[in-house]
Specification:
Blueprint lengths: L4 E9 L5 E8 L4 E5 L6 H16 L7 H10 L7 H22 L15 E9 L2 H14 L3 E6 L11 H5 L15 E3 L2 H19 L4 E5 L6 H11 L6 E3 L9 H8 L4 E3 L10 H5 L5 E2 L8 H13 L4 E4 L7 H13 L5 E3 L7 H4 E3 L2 E3 L2 E3 L8 E3 L1 H4 L11 E3 L5 E2 L2
Parallel strand pairs: 4-5, 4-12, 5-7, 6-17, 7-8, 8-9, 9-10, 10-11, 11-12
Antiparallel strand pairs: 1-2, 2-3, 4-15, 13-16, 14-15, 17-18
The chain binds D-gluconic acid (GCO) and magnesium ion (MG).
The site of D-gluconic acid has 9 residues, from loops.
InterPro entries: D-mannonate_dehydratase-like, DgoD-like, Enolase-like_C_sf, Enolase-like_N, Enolase_C-like, Mandel_Rmase/mucon_lact_enz_CS, Mandelate_racemase_C, Mandelate_racemase_N_dom
Pfam families: MR_MLE_C, MR_MLE_N
Protein name: D-galactonate dehydratase family protein
Length: 408
Amino acid sequence: TATSIRSAEVLVSSPSRNFVTVRITTEDGVVGLGDATLNGRELAVASYLRDHVAPLLVGRDAHRIEDTWQLLYRSAYWRRGPVTMSAIAAVDMALWDIKARLAGVPLYQLLGGASRSGALVYAHASGSDLASLGDSVRARLEEGHRAIRLQVAVPGMGAMYGVAAAVAGRYAYEPAKRAGLAVEEGWDSARYMRHLPGVFEWARAEFGPEVLLLHDAHHRLTPIQAARLGRDLEPYDLFWLEDCTPVENQESLRLVRRHTTTPLAIGEVLNSVWDFRTLIQEQLIDFVRASVTHAGGITGLRRIFDFAALYDIRSGSHGPTDISPVGMAAALHLDLAIHNFGIQEYMEHQPLAGEVFRTSYSFADAMLHPGDQPGLGVDYDDVAAERFPYEPAYLPTARLADGTVHDW
Ligand code: GCO
Ligand code: MG
């Protein structure tokens, strides 16, 4: 029939960094795009899609989104995990894109329509010291941001997560096209925990009570350290403290929660609603950080957000530049439609990415707006993409002073 899937292509390109995109085309030529980018492990998902998923899609009805999701999830037998769930996510996004293009409406209309005028976003500010962090925050405020994530170098610790941009410019980010082997960074939790509260004390004094301040601890503390840091940060009224401790053990958040009222955000490395079961049911977090790209697409992420809504837990979608502009657009349509929206991360892509991905979302009044083009509102330029072939890149490794590998 007209809406049968004619082809499912996997497109890999690197305009500023690597992106994996799925393009599904129906018999009568309607095209849908999906994001399958898994930073540092991109080709695993590309192969999963090309070698194992695409052959299953050809001939299926593009309208059957839930059925396709369940088919890819259940018939693989091997469930969950970032590779599988990113592959499913990309197909799911592309099918929603097609359905909305066929209906002639922006995707959020099919998800229930707009629940708000736009999606409040938070921007990144970083510095190698307080002076440069201050400059970075002021630049974001001048752009119109109201919510800002602060990351700053810790004296004596050298390179570390989140402050690359402070050294190498606004768009530098892990892995910033570091071909070859992984870069090594140092880590010292005690120094970090001593330094950080003073940074937020300074920020509140400098920028006042209104600006929403966030911080990402990037999985590097033990539960008891996380509890202590959360408590020490309470006077500075953070919007959230993110990934305060690794989350393989969801129950470990019970300990953190008992000791601090600093709001907690977790979940960018989780991929399914089951990964959030304890966190949500026991109200151990305040914000769900999962992304549409890594958690099974619109269908998968909506399931998580709806479950979270039962417990007054809000969304806070992951949105670094390793989510492609397609994934970003999908996140925005969902942000606009759900009731329990909290905030959306927005780490602007480099202008180069815009040569391959033609987007229609826009920033105004501290919010992103998905725009009113039918579908996701993103087009892919094959000719431009040819200029940006895949480049191998790795995320950094963190080591303690004695050489022990630490969580990065
Ligand atoms: C964030 C994330 C990212 C991750 C990156 C890894 O909060 O934006 O922590 O910075 O490090 O997505 O690929
Ligand atoms: Mg994070």
